[in-house]
Amino acid sequence: MNQRPARPLSPHLQVYKPQITSVLSIVHRITGILLTLFAAGWVVWLICLNRGEHALQTFQDLLSSVPGMVVAMLATWALFYHLLNGIRHLIWDTGHWLELDTARRAGWAVLILSLVLAALAWRFWQ
Amino acid sequence: MSLRSPLAKARNHGSARDGVHHWWNQRLSAIVLIALTVWLVLAIEVAASGGFAASRAWLALPWNTVFAILFTLSAFYHGQLGLQVVIEDYIHTRWLEVTLQITVKLLALLLSVMGTLAILRIAFGVAPLAG
Predict the structure, then answer these.
(1) Nearest by CB to B37, which of A47, A52, A79?
(2) Residues B47-53: contacts with CB within 8 Å, 24+ apart?
(3) Is A5 part of any domain?
């Protein structure tokens, strides 16, 4: 009774085949974490606007460098993904779209639409 | 090892009375952020493309000031609610968990205040700090 065998704890993620629903769920968390970092970037931009032209120029140079562009593109996609999947979550909260089939289809729709919107926004901003 | 069940330990300690508080506020801030994100996506082109003076003039327009402050506050509020759950779920070392939770909350507060002040300084026409 006093012994506690080191049994593996559920949910045994390693034995599950990744599914669209589970993958999108963890991506929602990852994009959420990323977006808090990007929100910090928004504050940095605001501070640059307070410091002066030179600071803003540095910020924009960083953003238009190759790593900066990659980060900005990632931020754009993460924003749309988290936005759309967040709406999917809100719909679930009302009790709708919870059937496995609908949840999967809405998941694919979110994924594709997030890429399309990110591409459109990127074009619109250029 | 105690034989008392978790339920027995929790009994008679009263309810915390904020069971849905986190859940509800996360949803509410999410809905607010949907609208503000649409504003930001449409506005950022105007905001960022015209250079230093144009960006400041854009931010100083009353509605933009209002939305920018609301966006800053709700983004960090929503963000720290989300990060709180992520830390609760994945960090199982108690001291590290508590340290991270406090750090995240304080950083969110700090960045919210910094962002709001930065917006207000521009809205009220305070001159840039450096040429």
Answers:
(1) A79
(2) B48/A45, B48/A60, B49/A125, B52/A49, B52/A52, B52/A53, B52/A56, B52/A57
(3) no
